[in-house]
UniProtKB/TrEMBL annotation, chain B:
Pfam family, one: DUF1667
Protein known as: DUF1667 domain-containing protein
Amino acid sequence: MKHITIDVLVIGGGPAGLAAALEAKKQGVQEVMIMERDVELGGILQQCIHDGFGLHRFGKRLSGCEYAERFIQQVKAHHIHVKLKTTVIDILKDKTVFAMNAEEGMLKLQCGTIILAMGCRERTRSQVFIWGTRPSGVLTAGTVQRYINIEGYLPGKKAVILGSGDIGLIMARRMTLEGISVEGVYEIMKSPGGLKRNISQCLIDYDIPMHLSTTVVHIHGNNKLEGVTVAAVDDKRQPIEGTRRYIPCDLLVLAVGLIPENELSAKMGIEIDPKTKGPVVDESFMTSVEGVFAAGNVVTVYDLVDDVSITGEIAGRGAAKYLQGKLNQDTHYQMIHSTNLINLVVPQRFRKNNLENHLTVYMRVREEMKKVYIHGTMNDRVCLHKKLNIVSPPEMVVSNIKKEDISDKGDITMAIERG
Amino acid sequence: MKQEFTCIVCPVGCTLTVDEENHQIKVTGNQCKRGLEFGEKEYTRPMRILTTTVKIEGSLHKRLPVISKGEIPKEQLHQCLQALYELSIKAPIKRGDIVVEDICHTGVNIVASRGIEPLIND
């Protein structure tokens, strides 16, 4: 078995991993390595050929692959080690990593720090419980995207999409452009999951109908998908009798949500937040295991790749500081709580003396609200008060709390106040 | 004529109302200047960025993602797609390389949105 010693090992070569590796290197770390199971760097961005990426970061509408390549070129220029086609199979608490690839066989790595950047995974049919047979032609949206945009296959002629998040909407347009007829987008909730601009430019532009409070209740066909039955649902998301409708189709696209991919993290004993489904992290995106950091969609599913890159940079900086002994670990953690209109908050805790200028807090709200205040309190004192025109579940709310407004002791409570 | 549009310039997605009276176009509902421009254009001549893939040979990947360097009239999107589907590109290609110049006389170039290395058989 080959033994490798490395200062920073980044697991995953997507946008979070690329940004994390780059930042660690820029902060003066000698040996940085990215480990990626795919044949190339870039992660899922490589199959996201649509534009709209990097609006915040580059002020431009880039396609996913363009966004990825900007980072990949920098990673190459900074002489970061890259191991492709390599799968990590185990991580121990003492930061020993076991991985393997076809050329070298088993690898044993002793790492100074580890940055987890494994991203997220799509929810599958078995996680949304649809009755019926198990024919081919039932695919997740990401799989369809990979088939069409990278492999060059068209996996069907007539499609039904379940789920109206941005991924479902973007695939509705993509399939239409490739000549697949999209019968409609079905959404179990009362309101659409995706952004308004995507409903406009992906569905309305191509006359694709969206059916709210409606879901797929049955899958038909033996070897190949022959059709699906859809039905309207009541307030408890139960199908309403008399509303069942059969739709013949050969492709059911499931766009039913993303879950952070934390098998490795959980196995090594990292504390997982049940709300985010990712590791509990601090201001430097360090997990509950000392010296192990996390970044991007493995922490919680972000909407914008710009945010994924930013969290990668925070983790990269944290890892560099940890190695250089500059990361304070002596003081107690102060917590960040949220009230009921806010679903989740990242990071969950912080140490004030590790903050540079401000504490960046990511929050996801429960429902769409207009003209609201985002309100942070600490020991009955206000540390953040900012007006927002609109907040909605598809878009993460990002706020910076100034270091000077944060007390040395006590927790922060974040709340949304209606204007 | 009064029409409503959803602004697609940024994630906010304002609902725009465009009113035309005596050849004067008035946009309301926008929260920023870019929405004003979008509303006018959407009413008079809707434009879109086109992204798709074209066939590529001699590489590990089968498809090359491409993007229009500017916006294309919405009514010409289909025509442009058809032209692109007839193409076959040879690897290697660099990001930003022009794949089609002035596609369908729109004045817009179609460029590669990533680089693709040639396949080396060993």
